[in-house]
Amino acid sequence: MTRGERVCAFIERYCRTPSGDSVGDPLKLLPFQRRFIVEIYDNPYGTRRAYLSIARKNGKTALIAGIVLAHVCGPEARQNTQIVSGANSRDQAAVVYDLAEKMIGLSPELSRVTRCVPSTKRIIGLSRNVEYRALSAEGKTAHGKSPVLAILDEVGQVEGPRDRFISAITTSQGAYRDALLIAISTQAATDGDLFSVWLDAPADPRVVKHVYSAPMDCQLDDRAAWSAANPALGIFKSMELFEQDAKMAMEMPPTEAEFRNLELNQRVEAAEPFVPRLVWEANGAAPGDIDGQRVWGGLDLSSAHDLTALVLETESGGVHCAFWLPEEGLVEKSKADHVPYDIWRREGLLLTTPGRAIEYEHVAEHLRGLFDRCDVQAIGFDRYNMKHLRPWLVKAGFSDSELERFIEVGQGTASMTPALRSLEVKLLNRSLKHGMHPILTWNAANARVVGQSGARKFDKSKARARIDGMVALANCEFVMAEVDVGPSFWEAAA
Questions:
Q1: What is the DSSP pairing of strand 180-185 with strand 49-53?
Q2: Is 303 left (phi over 0), alpha (psi -120 to 50) or beta?
Q3: What is the spatial distance between Cα 292 and Cα 489, in angstroms, rounded to a whole number?
Q4: Residue 386 · residue 393 · CB < 8 Å
Q5: Could you report how far apart the first and last alpha carbons of the chain are, in Å?
Q6: What is the pLDDT of residues 174-197, one digit of tens each?
Q7: I need a surface site. Which of 91, 98, 329, 378 has the fewest CB within 10 A?
Q8: What is the sign of the dihedral through the CA atoms of 147, 151, 154 and 159?
């Protein structure tokens, strides 16, 4: 019997169904649960991490509890080790503990070899002195642990690409070379959220990934799509209730996003982004060369400490980006914002300026280089902070005629409505080629609009994080549509 088979055998022999019509009966693993366990423990490369993404009510918490008990008092128990399960809230963390405690209470064999401590949500494996504890982000108790196994429940609820609580758990596993992290959750809302970042990371033989999700373009009444995201549908997930939920989502459009995220396991946020993910990806081709091209641009100039964005677009739809942040305090800002600014800088995707505030001198020098290399037709900008950039443009050698190509773009509905309309048309027609630039893609996932179709603008109050790149892109679209520049410089010179 392999290691994975022993874990499955332990769960089915000693763990009891904790609730429902079959309460007290031996827990029967479904094929998808068994396959996940076997691939974790029988991986010839050794599993470092394992991710299971699945719609809700498919037995994920019972699976977590069974795996926990296999490590507490079963075939995976190791002398004097710690095990933790982590969740975003105390209530969610308690669910895993409560389920494991019920399984123990229903099993005379498990009851003899364990001790439960409800007040601290702990279970002790008596034969090998193994301690399991349920932790929550609210409890702030992750530090000081050194778990050989950490299981994260509903990590898809974490907004943004980083989380201090989860980082505390993952970094605490350094005492073991073979430490194992298991994350079981529905999909996160956006590509920029932590669980999405994990799932989308390049393939690693030490990482097991199982994703059960409906196709993004499926209809709400597509039963094949239902089954794709719900392998337990009709077994211990009620088909009748699922049909009712699907019918409600079809009849009440405001509930559709929640249904797609929780029941179809799709990356859909309740507040829909300006650009749907599939549409954005359809415009993800490489932008091509920019040198010598006729280009238009948009600037979103930040305050002293925030992200400054420049987006350029060629006649063929190539989208080129530059982003700036202050160098000093960048690592701390990465941790505080839960955004990998430091990694983006290291990869050359983010530019930095010396000190703790944006130095517009460097932005001006970058623009000078672009004007020298390209046929820049116009740069749209928000008047905010432009007064700080203009002196540096003059110092960088911009002529009066070049300065006239910087066009103020209002950020209200009068200017943004045609800009957003133009941007939408290009995206839907797959006319842009943005190369899936990580920062611009992150900004796109965060962008929301306010107002009706006849009068709209970006709404930063509804943005979950920065949208500066999308604001710059909208400014670019405005000047492309509104500014009549005549023949290019190169054509005139010829």
A1: parallel
A2: beta
A3: 10
A4: no
A5: 79
A6: 878 899 999 999 999 888 889 999
A7: 91
A8: positive
Query: Is 300 in contact with 458 (CB distance < 8 Å)?
Result: no
DSSP alpha helix (H) spans, 412-486: 413-428, 438-446, 468-482
Q: CB within 8 A of 178, min separation 6: which ones?
A: 46, 148
| Model confidence band, residue 272 (pLDDT cutoffs 50, 70, 90) | low
For 109-145, write each residue's pLDDT tens digit: 999 999 999 999 999 999 999 999 999 887 655 555 7
Rounded CA-CA distance 460/451 in Å is 13
Q: Are 473 and 357 in contact (CB under 8 A)?
A: no
| CA distance readout (Å), 217 to 199, 214, 330, 424 | 20, 8, 39, 18
pLDDT at 485: 43
Q: Is 204 exposed, middle or buried (0-12, 13-18, 19+ CB in 10 A)?
A: exposed
Domains and CATH numbers, the chain: 3-212 (3.40.50.300), 277-493 (3.30.420.240)
CA dihedral sign, ordered 260, 263, 265, 269 = positive
**How many CB atoms lie under 10 A from the CB of residue 80?**
9
262 HSE (CA, 13 A, CB side)? 13
Which pLDDT belongs to residue 43? 97
C-alpha dihedral, 164 to 170 to 172 to 177, nearest 10°: -160
H or E element: which one contains 12? Answer: helix 3-14
The fraction of the chain above a pLDDT of 90, given in percent, is: 66
Taking only the tens place, the pLDDT of each residue in 358-397 is 888 999 999 999 999 999 999 999 877 788 899 999 999 9
Residue scoring higher pLDDT (335 or 172): 172
Instruction: Give the span between the Cα atoms of 390 and 304, in whole angstroms.
Output: 16
Cβ atoms within 10 Å, residue 317: 17
Instruction: Show the 3-state SS of 229-284.
Output: HCCCECCCECHHHHHHHHHHHHHCHHHHHHHHHHCCCCCCCCCCCCCCHHHHHHCC
From the CB of residue 252, how many other CB atoms can be counted at a distance below 10 Å? 10
Give the global pTM: 0.63
Give yes or no for a contact between 301 and 384, defined as CB atoms under 8 angstroms apart: yes
Reading the block at residue 288, the tokens are: 């091509």
